[in-house]
Every structure is written in structure tokens, then in C-alpha cells.
Write a structure and sequence with these properties.
The chain is an alpha+beta fold and 144 residues long. The protein has five helices and six strands. The strands form two sheets. The protein has a four-stranded antiparallel sheet, covered by helices on one side. A two-stranded antiparallel ribbon has the order 3-4. A hairpin with an 8-residue loop joins strand 3 and strand 4. The longest helix is centred in the C-terminal third of the chain and has 19 residues.
């Protein structure tokens, strides 16, 4: 099972305030624990929404609308993520509980969401085979 720990933005992260060295070291230690346990798939911080672009589809079948950041609702913005693969929902929760306060000021908020697996979305064997081929191609490109 894959889970994404979504770190919510704060006013500081949106203002471009960089994490303290102490917080960076705590996150590195946490990521090392994830690696040692063999569950870490990816982990990255995101730049503030002032560097972001939002694409919406306001009309069914219509053209997409592009809006440059910044975006105003800080609580709805993602500041970073960690993607893990674990055996259970409970294990994912335990890992999320071990993450240091992602902003270091008591403002941190982490949303934990399970990632759909191909089998969950695609019942048709032909469609699943196409998806498997695409994923294999991505892996081969990474290795090249």
C-alpha cells in the first residue's frame, strides 16, 4: 500500500521562509529512518505558491484556464510530501506520527492519503497492461 504524507503550507512557507538547520537535520534523520525501513519512495519540499500555476477546467469540455500564483488559501496549499510504501494503514499512520513538525513552529499539519493502485482504478486487463507498459517505460528511462 502506498500512502502520501502531504505537508500543508503555512504563512511562513508561503512567504518563502526557509526551514531552520535544526529542522532540516530532523527531517534528514526521519528520512534516513524511512530508508532503513525500506518504505521511502519519494520526499520533497515544494516552493511557495507564488511560483505555482493552477490549471482549472471551469466548463465541461471547455478550454483549461491557467492562473499564476500566489494563491490565497494557505491551508489548502501543499508545502511538501513524502511518499511511502507500507503493509497497512496503521503502519502509515505510525510513520506519519514520527515525522517532525514540518514547519518547526507548531503550525505543522500533515494529511495522510492512500494512493490508488492500478488494480483499484482499472478493471479492464488490456487497460491495466497498457498502464504497466507505461510504468515500465518510465523505469527504463530513469535507468538510462
Amino acid at each position: 500500500m502506498r500512502f502520501m504524507m502531504i505537508v500543508k503550507a503555512t504563512t511562513d512557507s508561503e512567504a518563502g521562509v526557509m526551514p531552520s538547520q535544526e529542522l532540516i537535520e530532523a527531517m534528514q534523520k526521519y528520512n534516513e529512518e524511512l530508508v532503513k525501513a525500506g518504505v521511502l519512495l519519494a520526499a520533497d519540499g515544494l516552493m511557495s505558491s507564488s511560483n505555482g500555476i493552477r490549471i482549472s477546467y471551469p466548463e465541461p469540455g471547455g478550454k483549461p484556464k491557467v492562473v499564476d500564483g500566489p494563491f490565497t488559501e494557505t491551508k489548502e496549499i501543499i508545502a511538501g510530501y513524502t511518499l511511502i510504501e507500507v503493509k497497512s494503514r496503521e503502519e502509515a499512520i505510525q510513520w506519519a506520527l514520527r515525522m517532525p513538525d514540518p514547519h518547526g513552529f507548531g503550525q505543522g499539519e500533515i494529511e495522510l492519503r492512500q494512493v490508488f493502485e492500478v488494480e483499484d482504478l482499472m478493471a479492464d486487463p488490456e487497460t491495466r497492461a497498457k498502464e504497466a507498459a507505461l510504468r515500465q517505460q518510465v523505469q527504463e528511462q530513469k535507468q538510462a
